[in-house]
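Have a close read of this protein, sequence plus structure tokens, and explain what the tokens say about the fold. Thanks in advance:
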Amino acid sequence: MDTSESYNELASHYHFIFENWEASIDRQAAVLSSILKLECSLDGAAHILDCACGIGTQSLGLAKMGFRVTGCDISSKSIERARLEAEKRNLHIQFSVANLLNLDHLGESRFDTVICMDNALPHLQSAEELSQAAIQFRASLRPGGSFMASIRDYDRLLKERPAVQGPFFYSDEGRRRIVFQVWDWLDDRNYAFHLYITREIANAWETVHASAVYRGILRDEVADALSYAGFANVRWLFPSDSGFYQPIVVAEAV
């Protein structure tokens, strides 16, 4: 299953990954807006392009805080879900289907900042694709605009090669929900990511399984790709300082 197909299958269930999706939307928006203001000197009127936006976790929260948001994702079903979620909240967000390797239709030099959160960059399968995506991010930004992305800590994970994350046990109005991941390492860089969401439904259990391939990327490799694409002042913010759950890279377009 390729990346778009995997997230198409997961779109209607994605919120179950979180203990409380609504709370996560607000919590992440608070953290990210603070970083955008402190690190990128952006105010609430800034125009954000949320690449790999999924069902809208970051887009929805940032729009609620007053930012102008445009979202895109490779998964058409995720975009459909994001549009519905924005409508339910009376938020005006433009969503469209787009690949990180081709953002041309979204407009050049249009955005104040581009974000790409939740470990989306490691879906790119080579250093060349990472550089191509970085060029697309740069082309989307106005002069002096900023870029922000989060990835897993692969500087550590590629050494440890963990096989399992979780399980996490949640409760939905008294009914149990179990979320866990299996990482099937294909080689020293690539792994098949298997996500399982098992929910108690009446007197039975329902399990959803989604799978995709990730390529672990080192922080220096991300920084090199961004520098090659025309970004400067590339720096990293770690969870202990940022309050976000993954390391975040921030850079400025020059």
Notes: The first strand starts at residue 47 and ends at 51. Residues 31 and 242 are 7 Å apart (CA to CA). The mean pLDDT is 96. DSSP finds eight helices and eleven strands in the chain.
